[in-house]
Design a protein that fits this description.
The two termini are about 35 Å apart. Helix content is about 75%, strand content about 0%. The model has no long low-confidence stretch (mean pLDDT about 90). The chain contains 14 helices and no strands. Helix 2 packs antiparallel against helix 3, helix 3 runs antiparallel to helix 4 and helix 7 packs antiparallel against helix 8. It is mainly alpha-helical and about 260 residues long.
């Protein structure tokens, strides 16, 4: 990148790539210096402001990150990646309704963006908009039937939603039993985890504990501490003959931190 810039100092992509490389190496001072040069040369370049936002997030400067994401969208209102990043920032800040608007805007630009669609489904759960969350998740499964994350989230909603009208333990069990094991411990742990939720929703606590113990073993093999914690929490419930229920404050994709 430096050689390219020596030959052509105003090479936009080379300057951005160099700044991003420095950021990935945690040389934030060098990254910000190169972003500043690019800003002076290309002040309306949306990718510049997206990456500035990412840098400020890494540095914990969340208001600055939000400002840069919004600047990226000012120069390109259809910039799906900026909508996604801004939505995630807002969601983590507890500003769910605003996050939902950003995710929906991103999907208008790129309807097939699985990450943004998953984020929308999770955000709707955090907003306790359970019917909308279920509808969006079903639609996501239909749009991308090969996407395991959507299937896990659908089972999680059917088995663990706090609203009675949304839950359907039989469908959750049927769906979870159709998911094939992958041989990847972290993935298989998530599959077994939602299987345990489905059994518990149907009052089958012995089977729920069996599935959860198998999930725990797989999670321990993967070293995923957040997933291990979640499964242990479910096991405690099952031993007390209690089903798992999603909390809107902590709703997330199954197995996600």
């Amino acid at each position: 990148f430096e050689h390219a810039l020596q030959v052509q100092p105003r090479h936009q992509q080379a300057r951005l790539n160099l700044a991003n490389l420095l950021r990935s190496r945690r040389d934030f001072e060098g990254a910000l210096a190169n972003y500043q040069i690019l800003k002076e040369q290309s002040p309306t370049y949306p990718w510049l402001y997206l990456n500035l936002g990412l840098t400020h997030e890494q540095l914990g400067r969340l208001p600055d990150a939000e400002e840069n994401y919004r600047t990226a969208l000012r120069y390109n209102p259809h910039f799906a990646k900026a909508h996604q990043q801004l939505g995630q920032l807002l969601l983590r800040a507890g500003r769910g309704p605003e996050a939902i608007l950003e995710f929906r805007a991103g999907l208008q630009s790129i309807p097939c963006d699985a990450d943004t669609r998953l984020s929308l489904c999770v955000a709707l759960g955090q907003a306790a908009a359970w019917d909308d969350a279920l509808r969006e998740t079903r639609a996501a499964c239909a749009r991308a039937p090969q996407e395991l994350r959507f299937q896990l989230l659908l089972i999680d909603l059917l088995a663990g939603c706090p609203e009675d009208r949304v839950r359907d333990g039989r469908e959750a069990l049927r769906l979870s039993q159709t998911l094939p094991r992958t041989g990847q411990p972290a993935t298989d742990a998530r599959i077994l985890n939602v299987l345990s939720e489905a059994h518990a929703e149907l009052g089958q606590y012995d089977r729920a504990q069996e599935a959860a113990r198998a999930a725990l073993q797989a999670a321990q093999s993967s070293g995923d501490s957040a997933l291990i914690r979640q499964i242990n929490e479910r096991l405690t419930l099952y031993r007390q003959n209690r089903p798992y229920r999603i909390s809107s404050q902590t709703a997330s994709a199954p197995g996600a931190p």
